[in-house]
Amino acid sequence: MLRDRHYFLLAVIIYGISVIYSLFLWRKGFRTHDRVNYALLLAGFVFHFKAMMMRGMRFDRCPVNNLYEAMVFVDWTIVAVYLVIGILPRLRYIGAFAAPVVFAIGVFGLMPSLDTTYGAKPEFGNGLVSLHAALTLLSYGAFGLSSVAAAMYLTQQHDLKFHKLRAVFSVMPPIDRLEKITSRLLWAGFILLTAGLAFIPFLLKQRPEVHAMSDPKVIWSALVWCIYLGLLVMHSRFSHSGRKFAWGAVGTFAFVLLTFWGVNLLSPAHKF
Q1: Which of 33, 87, 116, 132 gets the highest tally of CB atoms within 10 A of its CB?
Q2: pTM score of the predicted model
Q3: What is the rounded CA–CA span in Å between residue 47 and residue 43?
């Protein structure tokens, strides 16, 4: 009988096929409104959603109790948001950029050491823990998709500068629209992250033995919040736009991915 991890493995395999297909789209220069990649990510999403439902129904809670479940949730968020905006043909090629990110997170999430056991039911203090975790992880999903849009911006800008003919025939959105998409996704992620972090004072009251300033995860989260705030302020108030803004979105999310696991290992109070 297939378990939830088996369904997630099937989803990651399909995401891997999407990555391979995306390489052909890159070589063709994105000259047609392709539906195959969208269908591949949709098929992977079905297995992905099945895995999350099976894990969540086991204890009637949002499945974000360990690092494996956190990675599954972030991956699911990125794919879900893409499937919504990918309905528009002009934005469908975001999938070619999103697929490598989704596949990499999925492969990382499948590492056995991340799926730590916690018995038949995890111990939740109350629903605030689940809500705090869900909002925070949803913000990471939005940040991830914003970095994908930013990568598309950098690709389009490169083509306009060095391969003008390929840029003319490309069906990807123009760079000004990609910049707006990146900005809006960053704002969505920032609002979700702010809402998630707003629960920290209430959660600390339930665990007086935990001190915010001594928890690496809390300090790291505050740092991420400040970096994204600075990026958004520079973009909206000081005309910090274009190439630098796109690199900022890509670089900040890369920082989040590269440090998320290590910070969780150092944190005494966080399991994800």
Answers
A1: 132
A2: 0.75
A3: 7
